[in-house]
Amino acid sequence: MTALELSEIQAFLLNEFKEMGCSKYYLMQVKDAAATKSFLGAVAHGVTYAGATVTNTCLNIGFTSNGLKQLGYNPANMHSFSREFREGMVTEHRQRLLGDFESSDPSKWQWGGPANERIDVVMMVFGKDETTAGNFYRELKEKFEPGLSIIHVLDGKPLPNNREHFGFRDGISQPVIKGSGFKPAGNNNDIEAGEFVLGYKNEYNVYPDTALLKVTQGKTELLPDNAEGLKDEQTNIRYKDLGQNGTYFVLRQLQQDVNGYWEFLKQQTDAGADEKTRNEEATMLAAKMMGRWPGGAPLVKYDKDPGIEVADDNFNYFKEDTSGNKCPFGAHIRRMNPRDMFEESPQKVSLNLTRRHRIMRRVRSYGEDFIGSAANHQPNGEVGLLFGCFVANISKQFEFIQYTWANSPKFKRLYADPDPFIGVREDPDKKLEQIFTIPGETTNRVIKDLQSFVTVRGGAYFFFPSITAIKFLATI
Q1: What are the phi and psi torsion angles at 384 (to 5°)?
Q2: 3-state SS assignment for residue 249
Q3: CA 88 to CA 291: how far, in whole Å?
Q4: Sequence-separated (6 or more) residues with CB below 8 Å from residue 356
Q5: Which stretches does DSSP call E strand in 307-423?
Q6: 190 bridge partner residues
Q7: Closest Cα to residue 97, out of 416, 329, 403?
Q8: Is 0.85 surpassed by the pTM of this model?
Q9: What is the pLDDT of residue 430?
Q10: How do residues 224-263 score in pLDDT, each as one tens digit?
Q11: Three-state DSSP class for 443?
């Protein structure tokens, strides 16, 4: 196991910063390349790295492919980046993969879409509270102007009581990166570094594709030689690696229709029952769709809602719930992490396959600090999630999960069951059946005519360079 170079890796990959009460994502555009590079050179030493002691503030910075181009990054060097990153989130192909249609169509986004101003940089400012974050931002503003202008600001905060707005505990099944120094998580959750960080071997025991410097520019002596030993055929000199200790970050703003979600579930209950009984049944249906009770207790272990917070991730499906009678095959957490029941593969093969499609989730809520339930589901104003995840391969990780496991109605033994939270089409063709199947001992229960309660309001793919790579970008 190779130890990670923590002093080079931006901190948000390894630390959720839940103690930071205020998170602001400044989406920015390069107005003056020279001034922007001057800012990067001045601020690089202040970018928070993994393992750093953090008290009041934290700063991390990422770039879109357009952002690197605006800085003057050579087109030939750009081709070393993954195709997904180069093309960005808004193409016809990406739209089909991610299912961004109807109200989630990129043409209707608030930011990141074709009708919006170009996004080049995301500057993430974290503070222990609003005042601290605001003061830190003003210090940075004196440095980044006139090089960068702010296009949009995303105001986020840690999930209230670790719960998202629909009412479920979040972030229980997070992987641990080998070599990071964190305590092993066990139960197939300890993942090779190359699944999240460039320059390290992944679960295939190979190095992920990285951003090699094919054409000389800037102070190349700042960059390390690539770990894989790839060389220029003519000079026989190893390529320098901009990607080493860097990672890709997926960011999507997801609006949640909390009231619509719980009203839909209550419509599936016995209209003749009293309110308490209907609420309990709606909560049970919600848990079946999620795979956990609102407090986090997994269905494979808890037949009834324990009514307490439970952060239990020590379970699988093959022995505990082969039939799906406890946790339905189409439940959100079972689709996002099939564990030892990947399609019809043997247990060991399933575990290996699921390890190759993990993501490091980094989520913030926005809007009112509201936790929905069957009894209380009308927040004030718009609420939602700033969904983020770090990956080393956007296609094999984030896009695969969204397209193959969430959007596809054919999953495991199902034929018309998209992910009930993030895979339902809002206005499907009238011939398209969208259901949620709850297996039973003798008969299945089917929830028909699923509705979409999550709307994408913006999104982009970012590259988060190492600390040294940020210094290098200031010299190109």
Answers
A1: 175, -170
A2: strand
A3: 32
A4: 195, 202, 203, 204, 396
A5: 360-366, 384-391
A6: 176
A7: 403
A8: yes
A9: 67
A10: 999 999 999 889 999 999 999 999 999 999 999 999 999 9
A11: coil
